[in-house]
Amino acid sequence: MNIRSIGWNCIYGGDYSYLSAGESGEYLLVLARTAVRMGKAVLPKNTLVIYDGSCEIIYSAEEEFLICDWIVFDAEGDSEFIDIAEIAFNEPIFHTDSDFISRLIGNLTAEFYSLNGRRMKMIDLMLKTLLMKAAENCSHREPVQSAAEPHYSELMELREKIYRNPQMKWNVDTMAADVSMSRSYFQHIYREIFGVSCMTDVINGKIEKAKEILSETGCTVSQVAAMCGYDNEEHFMRQFKKLVGVTPTQYRKKN
Fold it and tell me: Which domains are delineated in the chain?
């Protein structure tokens, strides 16, 4: 595996737009740390896409600025590894451990610009680790069936709402009503398209917002819980530790 160019924690203005026709044999990995517009769809922050050079690539800032990590790389004789990894190319991947992925890209960036004598070997191993980690959210997904395709855009809009408004009391009935579907059909289509249940996304959205508030403000844990839609502080703390691995207070100290 060979990295051609790389960027970590890159910040672009609100008028930023990237357009490429794609190049055979060249891959582009993009991790959007803020909301991003990809084609006609507006996707929430922490969306990961890996392009394989077979289609047009277009994405742009959706807010006042765009923060993203990106890597341009080639397989350099490792096409078999790409096949084994079973990566879902050219489609959004909503990874539950985007912070880990971003840290990996940060470490890759440091290694790419280092003078380490074993730099190329380290880059190869780290990039493969990153791709395997990214593929974790792809391996269990089945291809989107034709029944789901007409609903893709409206469900993408709903998912964006969920991530942007974690304080709302989201439940299956309100989400299904938002897209005018029956409860059972909505749950089936949502999981088919995104590979996770709608309520898992609700929880992920709350925890991601909580991490952001803990890192950027001095709000108390109780205030953070309320801002993320939790009525019970203890429930918030238990759910946060289960998903993040540390308590909210410990997370704040580390960040």
Answer: 2-135 (2.60.120.280), 149-254 (1.10.10.60)
